[in-house]
Amino acid sequence: MTTLSMKPGQRYSVPDWETSNMQISDTAIHKRGISHEIRQEARTLRNETTNKTHWDKTDSSRRLRDRIYEVSHWKDNLVSCAQEVDTEMDALTQNKEELERALAATVLPLEVALDCLTLRERRRGSELVSDPVQAELKKEVEVIGGIQRTLQQRISKAFEQLCLLQETRHQLTRDIQNKMDALDVDSTCLSLTETSRDISLKPNPTRILSGFTTPQQWEQFSKCNVSRAQEEMQASQQLRGDMTLTKAQVLIELENQSMATDFALRKRTHQLEGACDKLSWQLKTTKDEITELEQDIRGLEEDLWAKTAPLKLVHTRLENRTTRPGMDLCRDEVHYGLVAEAQQLEATIMEMKQKLAEAQHSLQALQQHQACMGEDLSRKQDALSLEQRSLETRQRLSTTAQPEPVAGSIVPLTNSSGRHALDLL
Asked: Which structural domains are found in the chain, ordered by start?
Protein backbone atom coordinates (compact mmCIF):
# COMPACT_ATOMS: atom_id res chain seq x y z
CA MET A 1 0.00 0.00 0.00
CA THR A 2 1.50 3.36 -1.04
CA THR A 3 2.09 6.16 1.64
CA LEU A 4 1.67 10.05 0.83
CA SER A 5 4.85 12.05 1.74
CA MET A 6 4.39 15.54 3.38
CA LYS A 7 6.83 18.45 4.19
CA PRO A 8 7.43 18.56 7.84
CA GLY A 9 6.67 21.79 9.76
CA GLN A 10 3.83 23.87 11.07
CA ARG A 11 0.84 24.30 8.95
CA TYR A 12 -1.13 27.53 8.73
CA SER A 13 -4.76 27.78 8.15
CA VAL A 14 -6.31 29.82 5.41
CA PRO A 15 -7.46 32.53 7.79
CA ASP A 16 -3.94 32.78 9.17
CA TRP A 17 -2.60 33.07 5.65
CA GLU A 18 -5.04 35.80 4.81
CA THR A 19 -4.22 37.58 8.03
CA SER A 20 -0.52 37.37 7.22
CA ASN A 21 -1.08 38.81 3.77
CA MET A 22 -3.10 41.62 5.26
CA GLN A 23 -0.34 42.43 7.74
CA ILE A 24 2.28 42.47 5.01
CA SER A 25 0.14 44.80 2.88
CA ASP A 26 -0.59 47.12 5.80
CA THR A 27 3.10 47.20 6.76
CA ALA A 28 4.05 48.08 3.17
CA ILE A 29 1.50 50.85 3.13
CA HIS A 30 2.80 52.18 6.46
CA LYS A 31 6.43 52.02 5.40
CA ARG A 32 5.62 53.74 2.13
CA GLY A 33 3.84 56.48 4.03
CA ILE A 34 6.82 56.94 6.29
CA SER A 35 9.14 56.98 3.26
CA HIS A 36 6.91 59.46 1.48
CA GLU A 37 6.92 61.74 4.52
CA ILE A 38 10.70 61.44 4.80
CA ARG A 39 11.08 62.21 1.10
CA GLN A 40 8.93 65.29 1.43
CA GLU A 41 10.85 66.46 4.47
CA ALA A 42 14.14 65.78 2.66
CA ARG A 43 13.00 67.77 -0.36
CA THR A 44 11.95 70.62 1.93
CA LEU A 45 15.25 70.42 3.79
CA ARG A 46 17.17 70.41 0.51
CA ASN A 47 15.33 73.45 -0.72
CA GLU A 48 15.71 75.27 2.59
CA THR A 49 19.39 74.43 3.01
CA THR A 50 20.13 75.27 -0.61
CA ASN A 51 18.45 78.63 -0.23
CA LYS A 52 20.07 79.27 3.14
CA THR A 53 23.51 78.28 1.81
CA HIS A 54 23.02 80.57 -1.17
CA TRP A 55 21.91 83.49 0.94
CA ASP A 56 24.61 82.88 3.56
CA LYS A 57 27.19 82.85 0.80
CA THR A 58 25.63 86.01 -0.65
CA ASP A 59 25.66 87.68 2.78
CA SER A 60 29.28 86.66 3.32
CA SER A 61 30.24 88.05 -0.08
CA ARG A 62 28.35 91.25 0.72
CA ARG A 63 30.11 91.50 4.07
CA LEU A 64 33.44 90.91 2.32
CA ARG A 65 32.66 93.69 -0.19
CA ASP A 66 31.63 96.00 2.64
CA ARG A 67 34.79 95.11 4.53
CA ILE A 68 36.92 95.67 1.42
CA TYR A 69 35.27 99.07 0.96
CA GLU A 70 35.86 99.99 4.61
CA VAL A 71 39.48 98.84 4.55
CA SER A 72 40.03 100.65 1.24
CA HIS A 73 38.51 103.80 2.70
CA TRP A 74 40.84 103.71 5.69
CA LYS A 75 43.77 102.79 3.47
CA ASP A 76 43.06 105.84 1.29
CA ASN A 77 42.84 108.02 4.41
CA LEU A 78 46.14 106.64 5.65
CA VAL A 79 47.79 107.13 2.24
CA SER A 80 46.54 110.70 2.08
CA CYS A 81 47.79 111.30 5.63
CA ALA A 82 51.16 109.72 4.76
CA GLN A 83 51.48 112.01 1.74
CA GLU A 84 50.73 115.00 3.93
CA VAL A 85 53.41 113.80 6.37
CA ASP A 86 55.85 113.50 3.45
CA THR A 87 55.02 117.04 2.35
CA GLU A 88 55.47 118.33 5.90
CA MET A 89 58.76 116.46 6.24
CA ASP A 90 59.98 118.05 3.01
CA ALA A 91 58.96 121.51 4.22
CA LEU A 92 60.51 121.00 7.66
CA THR A 93 63.70 119.61 6.10
CA GLN A 94 63.92 122.64 3.82
CA ASN A 95 63.45 125.01 6.78
CA LYS A 96 66.04 123.07 8.74
CA GLU A 97 68.56 123.31 5.92
CA GLU A 98 67.83 127.04 5.57
CA LEU A 99 68.65 127.45 9.26
CA GLU A 100 71.79 125.37 8.78
CA ARG A 101 72.85 127.66 5.95
CA ALA A 102 72.06 130.67 8.13
CA LEU A 103 74.14 129.12 10.93
CA ALA A 104 77.01 128.52 8.51
CA ALA A 105 76.67 132.11 7.30
CA THR A 106 77.42 133.38 10.83
CA VAL A 107 80.92 131.89 10.71
CA LEU A 108 82.24 134.64 8.41
CA PRO A 109 80.86 137.59 10.47
CA LEU A 110 82.28 136.03 13.64
CA GLU A 111 85.64 135.50 11.95
CA VAL A 112 85.63 139.08 10.63
CA ALA A 113 84.74 140.51 14.07
CA LEU A 114 87.51 138.49 15.75
CA ASP A 115 89.99 139.51 13.03
CA CYS A 116 89.08 143.17 13.58
CA LEU A 117 89.53 142.77 17.34
CA THR A 118 92.91 141.13 16.77
CA LEU A 119 93.96 143.84 14.33
CA ARG A 120 92.99 146.64 16.71
CA GLU A 121 95.02 145.04 19.50
CA ARG A 122 98.10 146.04 17.49
CA ARG A 123 97.51 149.74 18.22
CA ARG A 124 100.32 151.35 20.20
CA GLY A 125 100.56 153.70 23.12
CA SER A 126 97.79 156.20 23.63
CA GLU A 127 95.95 154.88 20.56
CA LEU A 128 95.16 151.64 22.39
CA VAL A 129 91.85 152.95 23.72
CA SER A 130 88.57 151.28 24.65
CA ASP A 131 86.50 153.17 22.12
CA PRO A 132 82.95 152.53 20.85
CA VAL A 133 84.37 150.41 18.02
CA GLN A 134 85.86 148.03 20.57
CA ALA A 135 82.56 147.87 22.42
CA GLU A 136 80.56 147.27 19.22
CA LEU A 137 82.95 144.57 18.02
CA LYS A 138 82.72 142.76 21.37
CA LYS A 139 78.96 143.13 21.30
CA GLU A 140 78.91 141.77 17.75
CA VAL A 141 80.86 138.71 18.87
CA GLU A 142 78.36 138.18 21.72
CA VAL A 143 75.39 138.72 19.39
CA ILE A 144 76.73 136.23 16.84
CA GLY A 145 77.37 133.72 19.64
CA GLY A 146 73.80 134.12 20.85
CA ILE A 147 72.49 133.80 17.30
CA GLN A 148 74.48 130.61 16.78
CA ARG A 149 73.11 129.11 19.99
CA THR A 150 69.54 130.06 19.04
CA LEU A 151 69.87 128.65 15.53
CA GLN A 152 71.46 125.47 16.83
CA GLN A 153 68.59 124.99 19.28
CA ARG A 154 66.04 125.43 16.49
CA ILE A 155 67.95 123.02 14.25
CA SER A 156 68.07 120.44 17.06
CA LYS A 157 64.32 120.81 17.63
CA ALA A 158 63.72 120.46 13.90
CA PHE A 159 65.78 117.27 13.83
CA GLU A 160 63.84 115.88 16.79
CA GLN A 161 60.55 116.77 15.09
CA LEU A 162 61.75 115.12 11.89
CA CYS A 163 62.47 111.97 13.88
CA LEU A 164 58.95 112.06 15.32
CA LEU A 165 57.47 112.59 11.86
CA GLN A 166 59.62 109.76 10.55
CA GLU A 167 58.36 107.49 13.32
CA THR A 168 54.78 108.52 12.54
CA ARG A 169 55.40 107.91 8.84
CA HIS A 170 56.73 104.46 9.63
CA GLN A 171 53.64 103.66 11.70
CA LEU A 172 51.38 104.85 8.86
CA THR A 173 53.40 102.84 6.36
CA ARG A 174 53.06 99.68 8.43
CA ASP A 175 49.32 100.25 8.87
CA ILE A 176 48.92 100.88 5.12
CA GLN A 177 50.89 97.76 4.28
CA ASN A 178 48.78 95.71 6.69
CA LYS A 179 45.60 97.02 5.11
CA MET A 180 46.93 96.29 1.63
CA ASP A 181 47.71 92.75 2.70
CA ALA A 182 44.25 92.48 4.26
CA LEU A 183 42.72 93.77 1.03
CA ASP A 184 44.64 91.15 -0.92
CA VAL A 185 43.35 88.42 1.42
CA ASP A 186 39.73 89.65 1.37
CA SER A 187 39.79 90.20 -2.40
CA THR A 188 41.08 86.69 -2.86
CA CYS A 189 38.36 85.38 -0.56
CA LEU A 190 35.73 87.33 -2.51
CA SER A 191 36.95 85.89 -5.80
CA LEU A 192 36.71 82.28 -4.59
CA THR A 193 33.74 80.15 -5.77
CA GLU A 194 32.58 76.55 -5.29
CA THR A 195 34.41 75.61 -8.45
CA SER A 196 37.72 77.24 -7.52
CA ARG A 197 40.71 74.91 -7.46
CA ASP A 198 42.18 76.47 -4.30
CA ILE A 199 39.35 75.57 -1.95
CA SER A 200 39.58 72.66 0.49
CA LEU A 201 38.48 71.57 3.93
CA LYS A 202 40.64 72.98 6.72
CA PRO A 203 41.19 71.69 10.25
CA ASN A 204 39.35 73.84 12.80
CA PRO A 205 38.93 76.96 10.62
CA THR A 206 36.64 78.61 13.19
CA ARG A 207 39.32 78.78 15.88
CA ILE A 208 39.97 82.15 17.59
CA LEU A 209 43.58 83.26 17.23
CA SER A 210 45.36 85.15 19.98
CA GLY A 211 45.92 88.20 17.72
CA PHE A 212 42.26 88.76 16.87
CA THR A 213 40.96 92.28 17.51
CA THR A 214 37.49 93.75 17.57
CA PRO A 215 36.27 96.07 14.79
CA GLN A 216 36.28 98.89 17.32
CA GLN A 217 39.92 98.21 18.21
CA TRP A 218 40.80 97.96 14.51
CA GLU A 219 39.21 101.30 13.69
CA GLN A 220 40.59 102.97 16.84
CA PHE A 221 44.12 101.88 15.88
CA SER A 222 43.95 103.61 12.49
CA LYS A 223 42.27 106.64 14.04
CA CYS A 224 45.10 106.91 16.56
CA ASN A 225 47.70 106.69 13.76
CA VAL A 226 45.99 109.46 11.79
CA SER A 227 45.43 111.56 14.91
CA ARG A 228 49.06 111.26 15.96
CA ALA A 229 50.23 112.12 12.45
CA GLN A 230 48.02 115.21 12.44
CA GLU A 231 49.33 116.26 15.87
CA GLU A 232 52.94 115.84 14.76
CA MET A 233 52.24 117.76 11.54
CA GLN A 234 50.61 120.56 13.54
CA ALA A 235 53.62 120.66 15.86
CA SER A 236 55.91 120.69 12.80
CA GLN A 237 53.97 123.58 11.25
CA GLN A 238 54.23 125.52 14.50
CA LEU A 239 57.94 124.77 14.65
CA ARG A 240 58.40 125.89 11.03
CA GLY A 241 56.67 129.15 11.84
CA ASP A 242 58.96 129.63 14.84
CA MET A 243 61.98 128.78 12.70
CA THR A 244 60.99 131.29 10.02
CA LEU A 245 60.43 133.97 12.66
CA THR A 246 63.71 133.12 14.39
CA LYS A 247 65.62 133.28 11.11
CA ALA A 248 64.14 136.68 10.28
CA GLN A 249 64.86 137.99 13.79
CA VAL A 250 68.46 136.81 13.89
CA LEU A 251 69.13 138.19 10.41
CA ILE A 252 67.75 141.57 11.44
CA GLU A 253 69.68 141.46 14.70
CA LEU A 254 72.89 140.51 12.92
CA GLU A 255 72.39 143.18 10.25
CA ASN A 256 71.62 145.87 12.83
CA GLN A 257 74.69 145.01 14.88
CA SER A 258 76.83 144.88 11.74
CA MET A 259 75.56 148.32 10.73
CA ALA A 260 76.26 149.68 14.22
CA THR A 261 79.79 148.25 14.16
CA ASP A 262 80.44 149.58 10.65
CA PHE A 263 79.15 153.01 11.64
CA ALA A 264 81.33 153.11 14.76
CA LEU A 265 84.33 151.94 12.75
CA ARG A 266 83.79 154.53 10.01
CA LYS A 267 83.24 157.22 12.62
CA ARG A 268 86.43 156.22 14.42
CA THR A 269 88.30 156.15 11.11
CA HIS A 270 87.01 159.63 10.33
CA GLN A 271 88.11 160.83 13.76
CA LEU A 272 91.55 159.32 13.26
CA GLU A 273 91.84 160.88 9.84
CA GLY A 274 90.90 164.27 11.32
CA ALA A 275 93.36 163.77 14.19
CA CYS A 276 96.12 162.77 11.74
CA ASP A 277 95.40 165.77 9.53
CA LYS A 278 95.36 168.12 12.50
CA LEU A 279 98.53 166.61 13.94
CA SER A 280 100.21 166.76 10.55
CA TRP A 281 99.32 170.45 10.34
CA GLN A 282 100.61 170.98 13.87
CA LEU A 283 103.79 169.11 12.98
CA LYS A 284 104.29 171.19 9.84
CA THR A 285 103.64 174.41 11.75
CA THR A 286 106.04 173.31 14.47
CA LYS A 287 108.69 172.50 11.85
CA ASP A 288 108.23 175.94 10.36
CA GLU A 289 108.46 177.49 13.81
CA ILE A 290 111.63 175.50 14.54
CA THR A 291 113.13 176.69 11.27
CA GLU A 292 112.34 180.31 12.09
CA LEU A 293 113.53 179.90 15.67
CA GLU A 294 116.80 178.41 14.48
CA GLN A 295 117.23 181.35 12.14
CA ASP A 296 116.49 183.77 15.01
CA ILE A 297 118.96 181.92 17.26
CA ARG A 298 121.60 182.23 14.60
CA GLY A 299 120.73 185.93 14.35
CA LEU A 300 120.96 186.29 18.14
CA GLU A 301 124.33 184.57 18.14
CA GLU A 302 125.54 186.78 15.32
CA ASP A 303 124.25 189.92 17.05
CA LEU A 304 125.74 188.75 20.33
CA TRP A 305 129.07 188.19 18.60
CA ALA A 306 128.70 191.58 16.95
CA LYS A 307 128.21 193.28 20.37
CA THR A 308 131.56 191.99 21.61
CA ALA A 309 133.64 194.40 19.49
CA PRO A 310 131.82 197.58 20.63
CA LEU A 311 132.12 196.38 24.25
CA LYS A 312 135.84 195.82 23.76
CA LEU A 313 136.12 199.29 22.27
CA VAL A 314 134.32 200.90 25.20
CA HIS A 315 136.35 198.91 27.72
CA THR A 316 139.55 199.85 25.95
CA ARG A 317 138.61 203.54 25.84
CA LEU A 318 137.68 203.54 29.50
CA GLU A 319 140.86 201.72 30.42
CA ASN A 320 143.01 203.99 28.27
CA ARG A 321 141.47 207.13 29.85
CA THR A 322 142.49 205.94 33.27
CA THR A 323 146.05 206.78 32.29
CA ARG A 324 145.32 210.48 32.05
CA PRO A 325 147.61 212.46 34.41
CA GLY A 326 146.71 214.82 37.24
CA MET A 327 143.61 216.86 37.04
CA ASP A 328 142.93 215.57 33.56
CA LEU A 329 141.73 212.32 35.15
CA CYS A 330 138.33 213.86 35.10
CA ARG A 331 134.93 212.18 35.16
CA ASP A 332 133.75 214.19 32.25
CA GLU A 333 130.88 213.71 29.91
CA VAL A 334 132.98 211.34 27.86
CA HIS A 335 133.55 209.19 30.92
CA TYR A 336 129.87 209.12 31.77
CA GLY A 337 128.99 208.42 28.18
CA LEU A 338 131.50 205.55 27.94
CA VAL A 339 130.29 204.12 31.26
CA ALA A 340 126.69 204.37 30.10
CA GLU A 341 127.65 202.80 26.79
CA ALA A 342 129.51 200.00 28.56
CA GLN A 343 126.59 199.33 30.92
CA GLN A 344 124.20 199.43 28.01
CA LEU A 345 126.29 196.98 26.01
CA GLU A 346 126.73 194.68 28.99
CA ALA A 347 122.98 194.78 29.70
CA THR A 348 122.24 194.17 26.03
CA ILE A 349 124.65 191.24 25.90
CA MET A 350 123.17 189.81 29.10
CA GLU A 351 119.67 190.22 27.76
CA MET A 352 120.65 188.69 24.44
CA LYS A 353 122.34 185.75 26.21
CA GLN A 354 119.23 185.26 28.28
CA LYS A 355 117.05 185.45 25.21
CA LEU A 356 119.40 183.12 23.38
CA ALA A 357 119.16 180.64 26.25
CA GLU A 358 115.39 180.94 26.19
CA ALA A 359 115.35 180.46 22.44
CA GLN A 360 117.62 177.44 22.67
CA HIS A 361 115.46 176.01 25.45
CA SER A 362 112.36 176.70 23.39
CA LEU A 363 114.04 175.11 20.37
CA GLN A 364 114.87 172.03 22.39
CA ALA A 365 111.30 171.86 23.70
CA LEU A 366 109.93 172.31 20.19
CA GLN A 367 112.22 169.62 18.86
CA GLN A 368 111.23 167.26 21.66
CA HIS A 369 107.56 168.00 21.07
CA GLN A 370 108.14 167.58 17.37
CA ALA A 371 109.55 164.14 18.04
CA CYS A 372 106.58 163.34 20.29
CA MET A 373 104.17 164.58 17.66
CA GLY A 374 105.99 162.55 15.02
CA GLU A 375 105.77 159.46 17.17
CA ASP A 376 102.13 160.17 17.98
CA LEU A 377 101.43 160.76 14.29
CA SER A 378 103.10 157.45 13.51
CA ARG A 379 100.90 155.74 16.10
CA LYS A 380 97.83 157.46 14.72
CA GLN A 381 98.77 156.53 11.17
CA ASP A 382 99.30 152.93 12.27
CA ALA A 383 95.97 153.00 14.08
CA LEU A 384 94.33 154.57 11.00
CA SER A 385 95.90 151.88 8.85
CA LEU A 386 94.51 149.23 11.21
CA GLU A 387 91.07 150.83 11.11
CA GLN A 388 91.21 150.92 7.30
CA ARG A 389 92.30 147.29 7.26
CA SER A 390 89.40 146.53 9.58
CA LEU A 391 87.05 148.26 7.14
CA GLU A 392 88.54 146.25 4.30
CA THR A 393 88.14 143.09 6.36
CA ARG A 394 84.49 143.88 6.99
CA GLN A 395 83.94 144.36 3.26
CA ARG A 396 84.13 140.56 3.06
CA LEU A 397 80.68 140.54 4.63
CA SER A 398 79.18 142.38 1.65
CA THR A 399 81.35 141.02 -1.15
CA THR A 400 81.07 137.34 -0.27
CA ALA A 401 78.33 135.84 -2.40
CA GLN A 402 75.76 133.90 -0.45
CA PRO A 403 74.94 130.48 -1.96
CA GLU A 404 71.43 130.28 -3.38
CA PRO A 405 69.34 127.20 -2.60
CA VAL A 406 69.22 124.85 -5.57
CA ALA A 407 65.80 123.59 -6.54
CA GLY A 408 65.42 119.90 -5.92
CA SER A 409 68.49 119.68 -3.74
CA ILE A 410 66.53 119.02 -0.56
CA VAL A 411 66.79 115.35 0.44
CA PRO A 412 64.30 114.64 3.23
CA LEU A 413 64.63 111.81 5.69
CA THR A 414 63.49 108.47 4.30
CA ASN A 415 61.11 106.17 6.06
CA SER A 416 62.09 102.94 7.77
CA SER A 417 61.83 100.96 4.54
CA GLY A 418 64.37 103.21 2.87
CA ARG A 419 61.80 104.85 0.59
CA HIS A 420 60.51 108.38 0.79
CA ALA A 421 57.20 107.83 -1.00
CA LEU A 422 55.91 104.29 -0.74
CA ASP A 423 54.62 102.61 -3.86
CA LEU A 424 51.20 101.75 -2.56
CA LEU A 425 49.89 100.22 -5.78
From this structure: 25-191+218-267 (1.20.1260)
